[in-house]
Amino acid sequence: MKKSKFVVEGLAGQKKLAGRIRVGGAKNAVLKALAASVLFDDAVTLDNVPEIEDVARMKELLVAAGAQVEGNTVVPPSEWDPSLDQSIAGKLRASIVMTGPMLARMGRVCFPLPGGDVIGDRPIDLFVAGFRAMGATVEIDDHQYTVIAPEGGLQGADIFFPFVSVTATETLMMCAILAHGTTTLGNAAIEPEIIALAEYLASCGAKITGIGTPTLYIEGLGRGKLLHAEGQVFMTPPDRIETGSFVLFGALAGAEVVVEHCNPKHVEAFLQLMKQAGVDFTVGPDSITVRGKSTPYQAVSVRTHEYPGFATDTQAPMAVFLSQCDGESTILETIFDGRFRYADDLVRMGADILVMNPHKILIRGSRALVGRDMESLDIRAGLAYLLAATVAEGTSNIDNAYIIDRGYEHIEQRLQGLGLNIQRVEEE
Ligand code: UD1
After folding, report:
1. Residues 16 and 42 in one domain
2. Residue 388: which domain range?
3. Which among 3, 38, 387, 417 has most CB atoms closer than 10 A?
4. Measuring from each residue's beta carbon to the nearest atom of ligand 1, which residues come in under 6 Å?
5. Ligand 1: centre distance to CA 27 (Å)
6. Distances from the Cα of 374 to the Cαs of 7, 87, 277, 318, in angstroms?
7. Could you read off the pLDDT of 125-168 as tens digits, one per residue?
């Protein structure tokens, strides 16, 4: 595959973008719904699916395990191959979510330590502890995990997560659906994507209560039983990370930008901060209209948190926003360490950012940014670079467009629709 880069002509702080930008389906919902197809005896169809690279990889993973994938419909095989494809799973963090349904359905699963963005340590100890609590044995050999359910199938268990994990909640919830007996998941994550998944599974025969609360109760159907979609379609909720990022484009570079097809209720913590910083926006039932201001915004303090707090996936573009605010802002990153790698590049563009420790940065603003050449580090940092390049004076080249394509569908076309001069250029 040819490498490509994005070339952005910066607006030098002018607020010129105008029009409507559509938010796509949530990456972190659709990937899990694809993994859930392992629990079904019939075809699972998904709607509002973003055309992003991670979705393509997840479909490849399903095909490698025996499924047929036609468009956004997954037709399960009668027997899945429980050894997940090493090369795909090794690159995709969300592949870990397939281990739960696969173990529950096939009685075993083999997988490599999952890959994904390098945004700090991403261990899988919670998954391993959960599988063991349900009676499985877990062997680790040369970075390869083999998990085997007991003879009669997995047993429901009381599992309390010592800290909140999105993917561990999803994985063990799906595992428990085909176990024997009841599973309780305490201190579970309550992200909207998990709620959408749980509600869909419940509508297809899973017995889950407590959906949307930190305690999930799953009454297992027992091994050998399966879920039935019977034509019910999984409707992917709008991506709340895109929603926040597009609001930031509107605030920093927009005359009037309408962020549409979103759910403003999913970004309340973010919108509170926008209000505090002085951003002029109005909220509709499924849209947010942002009008950029010519005077700088006010510095605010950000603390990333599990949902409903401020999403860690929005913190990199938020740092760009804060570089354009008057005064001293801080970001406290409570979920991951190593998620400030983008700071160096923003500093080279003219931002004043001090990395105080792996969890905290101090940003002084506002500072004018100058375009430069950068390489996307991870999905969210890549988007932050696009935002910084839009605000900056001059041209920026953002290499490794693939990283941004992993999470954002046709981003250049959508930003062009607002009037931004951004091109995708193939590299030699
Ligand atoms: C998911 C999202 C990611 C988002 C993150 C936090 C997907 C595919 N990715 O990532 O976009 O940034 O939630 O909202 O949905 N942890 C452990 N042991 C484990 C599991 C997690 O120590 O077994 C730690 C992680 O290192 C991290 C914290 O728990 O510090 C939260 O991780 P988790 O919620 O699981 O995030 P991811 O699944 O990696």
Report:
1. no
2. 3-24+238-427
3. 38
4. 28, 31, 93-94, 121-127, 163, 165-168, 312-313, 335-336
5. 14
6. 10, 27, 28, 18
7. 999 999 999 999 999 887 789 999 999 899 999 999 999 999 99
**pTM recorded for the entire structure:** 0.96
Q: Cα(288)–Cα(307) distance, rounded to whole angstroms?
A: 20
Of 183, 207, 235, which residue is a domain's last?
235
pLDDT tens per residue across span 314-344: 999 999 999 999 999 999 999 998 899 999 9
Choose among 312, 289, 288: nearest CA to 302.
312
Question: Ligand 1 test: best mutation among 91, 95, 160, 165, most atoms within 8 Å of CB?
Answer: 165
**Residue 346 in 3-state DSSP?**
helix
Closest Cα to atom 3 of ligand 1: 313
Instruction: Give dist(CA 288, CA 272) in Å, integer.
Output: 13
Domain count, the chain: 2
- Domain CATH code at residue 107: 3.65.10.10
Residue nearest to atom 13 of ligand 1 (CA): 166
Residues 161 and 306 reside in one and the same domain: no
pLDDT above 50 (res 119): no
Q: Are residues 198 and 209 in the same domain?
A: yes
318 CA to centre of ligand 1 in angstroms: 20
Same domain for 76 and 89, yes or no, is: yes
196 and 265 fall within a common domain = no
Closest atom of ligand 1 relative to the 125 alpha carbon? 23
